[in-house]
Amino acid sequence: MSIASGSRNPSKNNMINILLLVAVGVGIYANSLQNKMFWDDDDFILKNQYIKDWRYIPKYFSENLIAGASLVSNYWRPLLLLVFSVEWHIWQDWAPGFHAVNTLFHIADSILLFFLIKLLFNKRILAVATSLVFLVHPVQTEAVVYVNSLGDSLSVFFVLGAEVLEGLTVEQGRRAIKELVDLLPRTVVVRREGGEQATDTRALAV
């Protein structure tokens, strides 16, 4: 099984599919860039003092998600706070920037899903169709257009990323074993007249 579908130019086909997913994702969610932040975005971002100063980063790992807004929650999401902090230091409270990051992570998730399906089934059409359904399905709307729901897309990003890396590692291992098995018959053990054994590796140079 290979991440290539058997096409003569799999890299080019992969790039075309990736560009398709990017175009569709941007086309669908571009209108969310004009949305403002609201509701929990206030506590997660606008009123959260911890994301506005790098010196609070250690607190991401020891306190709850909205402690920086002087509130108590049972959520503990240090990585999400770190991403929000990076965003805040880039564009402060500029809502379109936050919405753009949410959209990009969702598109990245669809791309990872594309590669995972290809690894599992080696069928490009199935991979593209599955990724497109994931990308455009209305159930994803809240996770994409609601800024503080970035945690959903982040979790999917790391889960799918880990699965793709595992799949690539397994695939590389299978290829290495196959190459080794193919190589062994080429090494021929011959016996000289004096009873010594020698290894003829001339075939290896082919």
Secondary-structure element order, as H and E?
A: HHHHHHHHEE
Span of the ends, CA to CA: 26 Å
Strand ordering within the main sheet: 1-2
Report the sheet with the most strands, covering strand number, pairing sense and barrel closure: 2 strands, antiparallel
Share in helix: 55-70%
Shape, principal axes of CA atoms = globular
Q: Poorly predicted ranges (pLDDT <50, ≥5 residues)? A: 1-7, 186-206
Output the number of helix runs: 8
| Extended strand count | 2
Radius of gyration: 25 Å
The average pLDDT is: 84
Strand proportion, as a percent range, falls in under 5%
SSE arrangement:
Blueprint: H1 10-29, H2 40-46, H3 57-60, H4 78-91, H5 95-121, H6 124-136, H7 141-145, H8 150-183, E1 188-191, E2 197-200
Antiparallel strand pairs: 1-2
Helix pairs in contact: 1-5, 1-6, 5-6, 5-8
What does this 3D model show about the protein?
This protein is mostly helical. It has eight helices and two strands, in the order ααααααααββ. It has helices at 10-29, 40-46, 57-60, 78-91, 95-121, 124-136, 141-145, 150-183; strands at 188-191, 197-200. The protein has a two-stranded antiparallel ribbon. A hairpin with a 5-residue loop joins strand 1 and strand 2. Helix 1 (10-29) packs antiparallel against helix 5 (95-121). The chain is globular, with a radius of gyration of 25 Å. 23% of the residues are buried. Residues 1-7 and 186-206 have low confidence and may be disordered.
